Amino acid sequence: MAEQRCRRRAGAHADHVRRPETVKPERADRLTAQELKVLRLVARGMSNSEIAAALVIVEQTAKTHVSRVFAKLGVRDRAQAIVAAYEMGIVVPGE
Fold first, then answer.
1. Which pLDDT belongs to residue 17?
2. Number of compact structural domains in the chain
3. HEC string for the chain
4. Which residue did the predictor score with more confidence, 67 or 10?
5. 12 pLDDT exceeds 70?
6. Is 2 helix (H, G, I), strand (E, B) or coil?
7. Contact in structure between 54 and 41 (CB atoms under 8 Å)
8. Are 42 and 78 in contact (CB under 8 A)?
9. Residue 16 in domain
10. Can you give the residue range of the structural domain that contains 45?
11. pLDDT at 9 over 70
């Protein structure tokens, strides 16, 4: 009985939660070659300093690229960017 009430409450709450839109594949076309590289590195869990080292750029430039990727994809954080990268096929599990 309690479990059933809990499910009902969770279901009612879920109706009010704003779910992020799925990133449209054509948004990937907006990314430059460098931004695609940055997105792949973000998807691998790299920090801005690690991205900078991998691409031989300064950290501030890496931060700028990450911010532009977020803006072009319409995502607000790394987690959403990673999901978008997988959904668009930019990153494949096991790469």
1. 43
2. 1
3. CHHHHHHHHHHHHHCCCCCCCCCCHHHHHHCCHHHHHHHHHHHCCCCHHHHHHHHCCCHHHHHHHHHHHHHHHCCCCHHHHHHHHHHCCCCCCCC
4. 67
5. no
6. helix
7. yes
8. yes
9. no
10. 25-88
11. no
